[in-house]
Amino acid sequence: MRDRLLPRLLGILSIVALLGAWEVASRTGALNPVLMPRPSLVGLTLWEILVGGEFLGPLGHTLLLFAVGYGLACLIGITLGLLMGASPVIYGLFEPLVELIRPLPKSALVPALFLFLGIGPATMVTVVVLAAVFPVLINTLQGVRGIDPVLLDTARTFQCSRTRTLLSVVLPAAMPMILAGMRVGLGLGLVLVILAEMLAGESGLGYLILDLQRSFQIREMYAWIAVLAAVGGTLAVIFDWMDKRVVPWRGRA
Amino acid sequence: MLNRRSLLQTGAALAVAGPARGAELERVRVSIIPINDVTPLFVAIERGFFRNEGLLVDTSPSAGGATGIPGLVAGSYDIAYGNVVSTLLAAQQGIELRVIAPGTKIQEARNDHSAIVVRRESGIRSGKDLEGKVVGVNTRNNVIWLYARAWIKATGGNPDRVTYKEIPHPQMEDAIRQKQVDAGYMVVPYVTLATAKPEFEKIAHPYSAVQLGVDVGQYLATASFVQSKPETVAKFVRALRRGIEWYNANLTNPDLLPIISGFTKIEVPLLKTLTLPPAPLVVEPAQMERTTQLMIEHRLLRKPVDVKALVAPMAL
Amino acid sequence: MGQSLAAPAVARATTARSAGSQNPAPRPRRNWAHTRASGFALILVLLALWEASSRLGWVQGQSWPPFSAVLVAAWRGTLGGELSLPLLSTIGRMLAGYAIGCSLGVALGLLLGANRWIRWIVLPVVEMIRPIPIPAIVPPLILFLGIDDALKVFVVALASFFPALINTMAGVLGVDDVLLQTARTFRVGWSRTVLRVVLPATLPAIASGLRVAIGLALVVTVVAEMIAGSAGIGYYIVQMQYALRPDAMYAAVLCLAVTGYVLNRLFLIGEARLMPWMGRG
């Protein structure tokens, strides 16, 4: 307990020091107070947003979009990754297409998606899926390929069916890699959720931040960015916690 | 890309016309929106009006103009072309701006080409018909949105009962066709292209219907720039006015088309189908005040903005 | 060889893989084309569908040109410079930001990995800033850095910085204790330990950090140019969209795909050259 307290304390101190320096710089005019409002004022605005409950609507929009997009991305990525890892035919069929789409900055596809899917939820979800699916897919594939052949031989010896081998041998063995890919996809997915909300301009934290910037409500904008940062941080923490549950042997290097 | 082009063009004009050397020219960075509204500026560049004043104008485009005022504040630009609503919003938040020159104004109804467009068979005619429907605007809480709302109200509708959806200008036609929106507020050249097709129909010109004479866009600088470099600003405005005069006198001159194509990247054959509206020579504070009133009415502003203080004398 | 998909994403992934011997043997070259024949056929079918959908009017819209028109636009734009110049400027900005972000990230990552005091003080601040999605910080940054190269380079540097930092730090922290103890048992000097034990053990982690970063760098450059652009391929895409020239717009997207693919390939080749012990040919 003792040895965990000191690092925490130091961390909090360094953050407080940073905000303090910002506060002083803004008060003395070293930082333009319109562009870089004092953290105390931003904090006050943040407090009002939180107490008033007005963060619930945009936050819900962002989280829902993220959950649907990221969930689909993981599902598609793992399934396709397993299939591509298990079958050379499926691998050959999809590999060139995957390699073609993967390096594309997904934001560049937005105008085309607008045309086919309309400006709305379908486009936004697609953009998020496209962003998050590739790290999951590629790591799954690599996880499958990295499996100890002895494991597979054993499964064959015990005459496990193909599906059963895939689900009870391959999937668990590939899990650490899959989770690592999902972790990368998490960050990318969130980036694209915000971008999609900015581009589709309906609701959510992304739209709100852009709208506040366009109407020069800088203090409110920072408060919402803080909300967004908290969301990103919380998601990462939840993920790491889950990760430790699923792969308890990791991280004890 | 565009910067380089304008530089080259200025350079070319230089080589032909003047004794003034590049080294003696003062560089002015201007943020523009690549739409027809800024044609007089490019006319003034092409015809050497800025060079004659000793200025080298370097333009930097911003699609939709979202970065104009922020770039001005950050010091990326000396001057920015911006729409009246963004300017008033910035002023309300304590950003010290000055309107230094006129940009776009709807002086006559017949020159108001931007319009609310619907599918012909939709049967929508008025703001009342739009209640419960979806209207596409390029940006919510901004100028197009404001005048769409004002028109809906003026024609018997409740603007709060209409949903506004952000659709980029180039996608508006597809959005209306695919029924993602019931109506769209479209601007030149997209409106011209869309309404040339039989399936679409214009039902209103909100700017002229709501506020004939509205000052839609202006050239801006920060108050500190106007204060510290009054000479530069005066030269810029003088040269720009010459550009406006030439433009107004040559609205049907085919020489204009390559100039417009140069900064919009829209191909000349398409530009030939457009009618160019004349540009204003002065800013009318009274019109800006009416816009302020509309913004308060539609909850974009909390209190009035001191328009008189916002408009620099040279813009009048 | 044929392992382009097999790219581990983060440091932990590399360690999880534990030994390179588990990788399948590289296939012979002829087989490479053979297995993918169906894949290339699939792409051709999709492109043919695109062409037909536009030519035959299945998809109605002013922003859906036939694929052949896109190819023509790409060809013209690349030769004429209209497309290649913005693309080059984008790559330049990207590389500048990437280099700055990665060097700072690796340096700070080594420092944080090596010294727990610095880690305790700095890591919370990093963790506070890291989860903010990049598009959200572009609007406020415009107010400080303007919309010129400084903004884009900064944003790219920031995006590259975090994966480089976190992976490097994780790499240093993840160096096997047994290795260090062995070095100690054999009385290997401190500097020799760092050079011969810690650095080689950390390099794979650093490399995967750098690879995550290069993937992000291109995306972020384009996003920044689209939001706050006046130059570069991101702005070009938006501009062509507004100029109603969808063929040129898709041509730019096509060029971006090729650029991204080539960058990834170059990275893999460089990695294989520099770190052959990562167990991949």
Automatic annotation (TrEMBL), chain A:
Keywords: Cell membrane, Membrane, Transmembrane, Transmembrane helix, Transport. The keyword Cell membrane applies. GO terms for biological process: transmembrane transport. Residues 59-243 form the ABC transmembrane type-1 domain. One of its GO terms (cellular component) is plasma membrane. Pfam families: BPD_transp_1. It is a multi-pass membrane protein. InterPro entries: MetI-like (IPR000515), MetI-like_sf (IPR035906). It is found in: Cell membrane. Its main location: membrane. It comes from the Bacteria. The chain crosses the membrane at residues 63-94, 114-138, 165-182, 188-210, 222-242. Belongs to the binding-protein-dependent transport system permease family. This is ABC transporter permease.
From TrEMBL, chain B:
Signal peptide: none annotated. Residues 37-249 form the SsuA/THI5-like domain. InterPro entries: SsuA/THI5. Pfam families: NMT1. Coiled coil: none annotated. SUPFAM superfamilies: Periplasmic binding protein-like II (SSF53850). It comes from the Bacteria. PANTHER family: ALIPHATIC SULFONATES-BINDING PROTEIN-RELATED (PTHR30024). This is ABC transporter substrate-binding protein.
